[in-house]
Design goal:
Length: 142
């Protein structure tokens, strides 16, 4: 009987976290930062296992490294949509926004570094009568 009470108390006293969302193209990321622990997990896996390329790994870890809190904070990120590059950029954006919620003093430095601003560039839609967004069919004189 005591074990069931302890389990319910555990659920009530969930770990405190700071959450934010970020995006890039069609990728959406939701990041949570926990004050205790260290490391970054993406979709339940270590971020170095999820993102194979060094460039993407650096993109995800850069907000925490930039603010020198990587060893003090634990982060979990859930990403969906887009490709791996867009997911890494979305995760970076979400982690930076969550860091601002964690400590408002970080905002000025993170904004100057370009982590908070969402990159609004998207793929232009295809138009009818054209082969791609702007590519017209080849014109033939005769």
């Amino acid at each position: 009987m005591k074990t069931s009470i302890a389990k319910t108390e555990e659920r009530v006293q969930k770990e405190r976290y700071f959450e934010a969302t970020g995006g890039r193209k069609t990728a959406i990321a939701r990041a949570r930062i926990y004050p205790k622990g260290s490391g970054i997990t993406v979709n339940g896996r270590d971020y170095k296992d999820y993102f194979k390329t060094f460039k993407n790994q650096m993109a995800v870890g850069s907000p925490l490294e930039f603010m020198q809190v990587a060893d003090k904070l634990r982060a979990t990120v859930k990403v969906s949509g887009g490709g791996l590059n867009a997911q890494a950029e979305a995760a970076r954006n979400a982690l930076a926004k969550a860091l601002v919620k964690f400590n408002a003093d970080f905002k000025k430095k993170l904004r100057r570094a370009g982590f908070i601003t969402r990159d609004a560039r998207m793929v232009e839609r295809k138009k009818y009568g054209l082969k791609k967004a702007r590519r017209a069919p080849q014109w033939q004189k005769r």
